[in-house]
Amino acid sequence: MKRGALNESDDKAESHQCIWGKSQAYMRYVHFANQAEIEKLNNVARLVRAIAHAEYIHAGDHFRELKHLDGGFVVNSMAVFGPGDTKKNLKLAIAGETFLN
What we know:
This protein is 66% helix and 0% strand. It has helices spanning 8-38, 42-65, 86-97. By secondary structure, it is an all-alpha fold. The chain has one domain: Ferritin. Helix 1 (8-38) packs antiparallel against helix 2 (42-65) and helix 1 runs antiparallel to helix 3.
């Protein structure tokens, strides 16, 4: 389905997915930054923390857009997880950011 062809129901579902995908990305990046600090990769840690903050802001933007809706929603964001060293974590971050629906 083309992006412009979404109906209202699809649009709401996509917005819910965005909120939780961004929320999970935020948490994932915070943990990735912590790992980079453990490995004494302080510049990488700072960069990943900045990206985490951007994900936090982006999730909040989507959340505020749904304030008019009633009820709770179940979503599956397909987030990429898995503890590892910074090299592995950066690969997971790239995979998560380049994932296409």
